[in-house]
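Support request, please re-run this one:
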Amino acid sequence: VVVSTAKSGEISLRSNGHSFTGSITMPDGSGALRLYGSGFDISSFTGNELIIGNYNTATNAVVSGGSFGMLSVGAAGNCTVTGGEYGAITVNNYYSSTASANPTYSARLSITGGSFASDRVTIQNASHNPASESAQLSDYLAEGFKIIEVGGAYPYRVVADDAVAELNGKSYATLQKAVDAAADGDVVTVFQTGLSATVSGSSRTINLKNGSDQPVEVKLNNDLFYLPSGSSAPFSYESPKDPGSGGSGGGGGGSVSKPEPDVGGMPFDDVEDGDWFYDAVEYVWDNGLMNGVGDGEFAPGFTLTRGMMATLLYRLDGEPEAHGSAFDDTGSGLWYSSAVSWAAENGLVNGYGEGVFAPDEPITREQLAVILYRYAQSKGLGFTGMWAFRLDFNDAGEVSEYAYEAMCWMTMNGLINGYDDGTLRPQGSATRAEVAAMFMRFVEFIG
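Re-run finished. Output below.
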């Protein structure tokens, strides 16, 4: 499309439900073009300004080339830039200088390619005070910056498609980078489970927040946090007072050691003397097998995941060296990576095939029995030769064939108990309190 004239220096192009693919050239390479609607795929634009969206018309466009004096994404606009040369960039969520921000739509700009004359982008939101400010684009590009979003649920935010953490509106590709940048009292929002980082440097409290719609497990130093969706928990780090004392250590980071129990018991507000699981939680806490989930809670009613189960046995065995990873979804450097690798190497855990272990999936009671039984067998225990044992529970038929021997041995020795209604619930999940009780009985039994 070649535009010959443009009234008042600006023209509008509406898709009206159709798609548009091609290049657009403005008169003498100047003037502004505003796009309305969906389905725009602009291979090249030559002009002074390209405007994506309006106050109340949802507009979607992909721009892959061209030369721009300014690219503007307005309210209800969603623009993806894959190439081109750009001068100024503006992302705003208002119709005019006197109108309020649109509460329904946000303005969204995604950048995956192209070159930019300035490393600053102007962010404007009529509901935001101040109404206009600049974000340093190069800072975000260095962290994998891909999206600017203004309005909607946020005054403004700059995020990355592959971000795993966010701090003060800035996204990070690793939790470690976010933690390193966090000051005392800052909130670090995480978007996926299995993340870990080491806190060092100055003493400070970092608040972890789950920004995903699923529960996550995050490890900072030696503390494991279980965070339901939307929840938060503080992590307090105390820097070593004299890193160079006590020998030839080189100083620096340090780590948080397990806090001493309170005089009146453990440091958990949700575990009280008289609870059926009190002694079990105290046992796993004192022996360094299980930690709290943050904010003074042990979360006895939360379900245990497969990754956490592998970690418990790994700790019980003294955290020996692990080699590589047997699964595609357990990665390296995650808090459960070494534990799952070690457990797989020693035949304690299996995956679901095709490289899947599912570390964040709740562990079932029969899976728990099998893993503990295999560990017991590695210590010379378990059934040998001919054996027979009746699994006397109302739902014994629900025990999987591969788990039957383990369930028999575990129940015969009182390591896994049934419920008051006569069921064993082999396919049910196990809570942290139940696992603490099983582990206490199991460790004491195997000696």
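Confidence is low (pLDDT under 50) at residues 95-101, 127-146, 152-156, 241-264. The chain is about 20% helix and 25% strand.
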